[in-house]
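Predict the 3D structure for this chain.
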Amino acid sequence: MSIKVRYFASLGERVGRSEGDLEFTQAMTVRDVWQLDTLGKPIPDNLLVAVNMEYSELDFQVQDGDEVAFFPPVTGG
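Done. Predicted structure below.
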């Protein structure tokens, strides 16, 4: 199975790329995607996640063909 993984803004700099494809053979959650695709980097506090352009939680189970996007926390002033 395969999914598209995207990193936005500072997260792309942190992991060294803005997007990629991830192949997997067993059930995975969004948290598993982060751990596998970033080679175990710590999950940032207040990380925002979307699966197929809908906000999601880290425990959401991804499916073949999904797009998982990670966004840094939004700050404002």
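The CA atoms of residues 7 and 14 lie 9 Å apart.
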